[in-house]
């Protein structure tokens, strides 16, 4: 039996942990990324469902293209965004990476996270994830974690 973890118990600054399950992402009716267990990292931040970071090498060649968009995370540093394209779908700025993360998050270098809500489907093991509420954060909701989750209207100051 799997223990369900409360996201309210996650730390600040966020923790990182390896993911034992395989992770798969589908866009445009095609698999765009597949990562075996042990190669994926997840970031665990207070009140957020985990954000999953797959090795860039897990993405099919040609599905990721750099975007000029950047953002800044107080914990991880400067993020650079990526556009995903497969089949008839193109999702601008739907993925991000930390090319030069701060030392505490060095394991995220050469890894890519995606907004689950912008994909056809994302899976952790055999479970299809739900996107974190709202459009700003990139967490993936699975049955292994319970909320409440930050991101919906009214949760900005949690």
Name the features.
158 residues; mainly beta; Metal Binding Protein, Guanine Nucleotide Exchange Factor, Chain A; seven-stranded antiparallel beta sheet; globular
End-to-end span in angstroms?
31 Å
The number of distinct β-strands equals 15
The CATH first-level class comes to: Mainly Beta
Helix proportion: under 10%
Would you write up a description of this structure?
The chain has strands at residues 5-6, 15-19, 23-27, 30-35, 40-44, 51-55, 64-73, 77-86, 89-97, 111-114, 121-124, 127-128, 130-131, 140-141, 145-146. The radius of gyration is 15 Å and the shape is globular. It is built from no helices and 15 strands. With 158 residues, it is mainly beta. It has one domain: Domain of unknown function (DUF427) (Metal Binding Protein, Guanine Nucleotide Exchange Factor, Chain A, Beta Complex).
Helix-strand blueprint:
Elements: E1 5-6, E2 15-19, E3 23-27, E4 30-35, E5 40-44, E6 51-55, E7 64-73, E8 77-86, E9 89-97, E10 111-114, E11 121-124, E12 127-128, E13 130-131, E14 140-141, E15 145-146
Parallel strand pairs: 1-15
Antiparallel strand pairs: 2-5, 3-4, 3-11, 5-6, 6-10, 7-8, 8-9, 9-10, 11-12, 13-14
